[in-house]
Amino acid sequence: MLFQMCYGPELESIYEVVRRSPDCTLDDLQMKFQYAEEGDIRSLIEGAVTVLTDLGLVYDREGKFCSQGDAWDVIDVLLRLRRVGNESEEATFDHVFSHMYYELFVKSNTMFIKNLHHQTNQRFPDTLVGKEKVNAWKRMMEFFGVGHRVYSGFYALPQLRLMERFIERSGEWSGPLHQYCQEQIHPVLPCVHNGDVFRGVIYGLSFLDKQGVIRLTRKQDLPYSSYGPQHQWNWIEVGEG
User: Fold this and answer.
1) How far apart (Å, rounded) are the C-alpha atoms in residues 136 and 123?
2) CB neighbour burial string for 118-130, b if at least 16 within 10 angstroms, e if fewer
3) Minimal CA–CA distance to 143: which of 154, 152, 132?
């Protein structure tokens, strides 16, 4: 189950240890990360390993763990999360975990939800989700770069480092802004609903435009929607395009 009491950074740290030291056990991981004798971090390690296993990043071979081999990449993590969402049954915690971003933020084009716990249980009434599980989701999504925790809520403005990874991944690209989001971002981070691109992603791209990383402009007579505060963008250029 993906709803584990995780904070985020330990997922990458534990994954990299497993990747570099295959066939390590939970005891090995505890010895690696238990810096002081006081307290017991076993449950935290078990929770992180459960998330990594459910995402297919780590495999359990009779109590010994190995990885799929590649260095940690948040794009790969989000792709795996989407796969879990597509394959999980609707009334399960994994389905809720993997669909919260799309169902609560993208569908309504809402960037900030003040009480995420309440809204989650309103949207998924057949799967009651406790506050700690929602808080864990917020922590992990913030670590993945999907947004920011704000008290009891969540602000779904993708972080700059995640948007930069999309730009790196797509490489040189020139074409309609809607098409770019549909083809380059949506398969990884759901951002298109009913023909509209989620404004959180548009704002993230606009910041890259201000920094000169990409170029957003408007072209006449395109059969695609325009975005921005004044609907002033419908074209994107990445790299030399």
Assistant:
1) 18
2) ebbbebbeebebe
3) 154
